[in-house]
Amino acid sequence: KEKNNKIDLMHTSLLSLVKDRIYKLIFPVTRLLVLLNVSSNYITITGLFLTIIGSLFLVFEGFYLAMIFWLVGGLCDLIDGQLAHYTGNDTLFGALLDSITDRFSDLAVFTGACFLFIIHGDRIGAIYIWFPLALITLITAGVSFGGSYVSAMANGLGYHCNMGLLQRPERFVMMIIACLFGLYGIATAIIIIFFLATYTFFQRLIFCYKNMQ
């Protein structure tokens, strides 16, 4: 047991240590939604649309608006699971819907960043600089989706693989914080996420290889 605990600590995500505190902070909102009899699936879909709107603002360099919409959308992603638990509506379909909206939310964020770089590069006549960064953004999206796919497949086969240095919540928080620093903040965040998401992808793949032989 001690050995397994050490492995879990090594593979824990960066935000997992403060996750319980975040849930405590948003619990009053969850309790209000329970009293109002709001469906958790409604909150899930609302979070997706807010993230998409934030990504549209990002494309046109509305960094602070993007940050606000992403932040509220991210909170919706936390609240929906908590709401489903306390209302007794934590169904398999709700879990599936949550997973699907997570993927589309990620796609919206990465697509917004990609178009941001292309449009900015074209406007200032430096597409040769910003287009490669847009390409890196697409690769980062692919690696991130790959890591999520490995985790989902492993869990489906009975192996707990919700681990890794940089999971989805960390990626999302990094992009939100990056908005405070504008264009170069987003560019820096994408590059950092590229390396950490790649590491996480192989981390999960190696975990599966060692445990599925």
How would the blueprint of this fold be written?
Blueprint: H1 2-10, H2 19-35, H3 40-59, H4 63-87, H5 92-123, H6 127-156, H7 168-178, H8 182-211
Helix pairs in contact: 2-4, 3-4, 3-5, 4-5, 4-7, 5-6, 6-8, 7-8
Overview of this protein structure:
This protein has 213 residues and is mainly alpha-helical. It has helices spanning 2-10, 19-35, 40-59, 63-87, 92-123, 127-156, 168-178, 182-211. Helix 4 runs antiparallel to helix 7 (168-178) and helix 7 runs antiparallel to helix 8. It is globular and about 55 Å long.
* Biggest sheet statistics: none
Number of DSSP strand runs? 0
Parts with pLDDT < 50 across at least 5 consecutive residues: 1-11
Per DSSP, the total helix count is: 8
The assigned structural class equals mainly alpha
Give the terminus-to-terminus CA distance.
Answer: 21 Å
The radius of gyration computed from the alpha-carbon positions, rounded to a whole number of angstroms, is 18 Å
List SSEs in N-to-C order. HHHHHHHH
**Strand fraction:** under 5%
Helix content: over 70%
Shape: globular
Mean pLDDT over the residues: 88
